[in-house]
């Protein structure tokens, strides 16, 4: 991942390129209302650039199919029937959700296999341009090694992991950040004022600029804290484990609750209120908080953390530099719904629309 530019300038260049396409897309709505998922294409494309080596055109049929399948899988993953099945697999014959979901995942695999096949056909040390290429290259290097971990099933699982974990998460966070700016126009204005003071007209903010933009940085951290996007990612103990007086046998499912930290009233002044001051001191400097754990913690925390933070910053600042986001006509700020997210794997905002008004 590092060789592919994760968290570095190389990927930032791709994010700027994608920002340009995103801005053009938003401009095409000409100030008319459009739905929040319209922002998804750009962050999802960045993960695809890493996976496949190239961006997709937003109208590309493969791109649209992948977006649809990911969306459907995420909805099914949040279905209560799937949870019943997880807890009572022997009742599988009663539930259909897991079968429908596995079929959709298989449809994603069919597409991924085509990319793996293409990569396999002309891979060499100098042609590694993507995550898929890197895995295939390693597989070929180790083809005579007994017990190599780079076998087809593992490759597919790793690629699929990135497809699912690196798309919905960042795309939904971007949707929330725009929704929250519509809801709190005074915060949106303060971000735009800071952008005006810090970013030269005609250029985009780089990730490095966040150091001179404490307010914007605080707003984005607060977005991630407030939305508690991924309340719990189930894990399995790899070995017998003793933890705080409890014995967790090998193989048992453990579900850490990130919400308990992100909304902990001993850590945050107003845990249930959107409040960028959580990340600012009295002088307006940005303050890091130990309880800010949307990417979890420990050895298996989110692999995409640095990329996600960079994308979020560059896309968000670029969007607010170019547009002011308002609720659609007939909807007031107080009508905007922050409270009842859909049941999906991530906590998505309710389907809502926005109007992007071009700034001077
Ligand atoms: C706002 C965006 C994101 C959030 C909030 C987020 C959050 C998380 C969390 C909480 C986990 C579970 C960690 C654990 O169990 O300890 C995770 C895992 C993961 N994330 Fe992210 N993530 C985001 C974006 C991304 C992106 C952009 C990528 C890839 C480009 C990515 C790739 C992954 C992968 C592959 C895993 C699984 C790691 C493993 O299997 O150990 N994530 N993420």
TrEMBL record:
What family does the Swiss-Prot or TrEMBL record give for this protein?
Answer: Belongs to the cytochrome P450 family.
The name this protein carries in UniProt is Cytochrome P450 2W1
Task: Report the source organism.
Answer: Willisornis vidua
Keywords, ordered alphabetically: Heme, Iron, Membrane, Metal-binding, Monooxygenase, Oxidoreductase, Transmembrane, Transmembrane helix
Q: What sections of the protein cross the membrane?
A: 34-53, 73-95
Q: What are the required cofactors?
A: heme
């Amino acid at each position: 991942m590092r060789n592919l530019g994760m968290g570095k300038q190389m990927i930032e260049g791709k994010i700027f390129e994608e920002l340009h396409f995103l801005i053009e897309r938003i401009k095409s709505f000409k100030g008319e209302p459009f739905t929040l998922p319209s922002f998804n294409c750009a962050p999802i494309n960045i993960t695809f650039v890493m996976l496949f080596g190239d961006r997709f055109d937003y109208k590309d049929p493969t791109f649209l199919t992948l977006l649809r399948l990911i969306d459907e899988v995420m909805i099914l993953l949040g279905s209560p029937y799937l949870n019943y099945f997880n807890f009572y697999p022997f009742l599988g014959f009663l539930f259909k959700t897991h079968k429908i979901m596995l079929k959709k995942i298989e449809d994603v695999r069919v597409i991924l296999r085509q990319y793996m096949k293409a990569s396999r056909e002309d891979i060499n040390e100098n042609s590694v341009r993507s995550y898929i290429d890197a895995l295939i290259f390693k597989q070929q290097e180790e083809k005579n090694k007994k017990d190599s971990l780079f076998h087809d099933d593992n490759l597919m699982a790793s690629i699929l992991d990135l497809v699912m974990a690196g798309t919905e998460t960042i795309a939904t966070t971007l949707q929330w950040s725009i929704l929250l700016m519509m809801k709190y126009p005074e915060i949106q204005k303060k971000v735009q004022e800071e952008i005006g003071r810090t970013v030269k007209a005609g250029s985009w903010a780089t990730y490095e600029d966040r150091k001179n933009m404490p307010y914007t940085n605080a707003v984005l951290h607060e977005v991630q804290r407030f939305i508690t996007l991924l309340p719990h990612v189930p894990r399995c103990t790899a070995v017998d484990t003793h933890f705080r007086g409890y014995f967790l046998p090998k193989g048992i499912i453990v579900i850490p609750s990130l919400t308990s930290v992100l909304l902990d009233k001993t850590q945050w002044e107003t845990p249930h209120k959107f409040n960028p001051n959580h990340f600012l001191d009295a002088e307006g400097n940005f303050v890091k908080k130990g309880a800010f754990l949307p990417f979890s913690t420990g050895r298996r925390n989110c692999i995409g953390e640095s990329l996600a933070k960079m994308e979020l910053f560059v896309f968000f600042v670029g969007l607010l530099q170019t547009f002011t986001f308002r609720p659609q006509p007939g909807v007031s700020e107080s009508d905007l719904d922050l409270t009842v997210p859909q049941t999906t794997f991530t906590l998505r905002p309710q389907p809502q629309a926005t109007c992007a008004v071009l700034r001077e």
